[in-house]
Amino acid sequence: MKNWIELVFPGTSINVSFARAVVAHFAAQLDITLDELEDIKVAVSEAVSNCVVHGYREKEGNVVIRASYEESRLEIIVEDFGHGIPDIEVAQETGYTTLPEERMGLGLTFMREYMDELHIYSEVEVGTKVVMVKQIPARQAG
Ligand SMILES: Nc1ncnc2c1ncn2[C@@H]1O[C@H](COP(=O)(O)OP(=O)(O)O)[C@@H](O)[C@H]1O
Ligand SMILES: [Mg+2]
After folding, report:
1. Fewer CB within 10 A of the terminal residue: the chain, N end or C end?
2. Best substitution site from 90, 97, 99, 119 to test ligand 1's pocket, by max atoms within 8 Å of Cβ?
3. Is 101 in the active site?
C-alpha cells in the first residue's frame, strides 16, 4: 500500500522540531528500528533548518514536506522557495558553509550519510528541493 502526507508551514526555526516529529511519526508506521528513526530525524531537521536558515535568510516563505512510502521505500521531500544554491557540488563539500560564524557545514553530509539516497535540485532565487530516500526493510517477527 502507498501512503503519504503533505505538510506546509512557514519557514521559521520554531517549526523545525515540529516537522521532525511529524515525519518521524509518519515513518514509524513502517517496521522501523530506533536507529533508522534517529537517522530520519537528523536528516529532516537538517533539511528543514537549511530552508529556514539559508533558503529564507532575510526572507519569508513556506516549507513544503511530502513524505511517502510504498513497500520498503520511504521518500521524504523538503522544499523551499527561497534563495537557492548557486553551486550544489560545492555546497555538499563537508564543512562548506556560507554562514561560517554560526554553522558547521555538515547538514548535507549528514543527510547523505544517514539516508540511502539524496538528490538536490536548486535554482538561485527560485528555491531548493531535497529528495531523500531510505529503505526500511520488512523484518521477521521474533
Ligand atoms: N535550502 C537551502 N537554501 C539555500 N542554500 C542552502 C540550502 N541548503 C543548503 N544550502 C547551502 O549549502 C551550504 C551547506 O549546507 P549544510 O551542509 O547544511 O551546512 P550549513 O547549514 O551548516 O551551512 C549552506 O551553507 C548553504 O550555503
Ligand atoms: Mg545545514
Report:
1. C
2. 97
3. no
Structural domain boundaries in the chain? 2-135
One pLDDT digit (tens) per residue for the chain, 142 residues? 899 999 999 999 999 999 999 999 999 999 999 999 999 999 999 999 999 999 999 999 999 999 999 999 999 999 999 999 999 999 999 999 999 999 999 999 999 999 999 999 999 999 999 999 999 998 876 5
Catalytic: 46?
yes
- CA Rg value for the chain: 15
Give CA separation, 40 vs 87, 117, 139, in Å: 25, 12, 18
- 63's enclosing H/E stretch is strand 62-70
User: What CATH number matches the domain at 2-135, 3.40.50.1220, 3.30.2130.10, 3.30.365.10, 3.30.565.10?
Assistant: 3.30.565.10
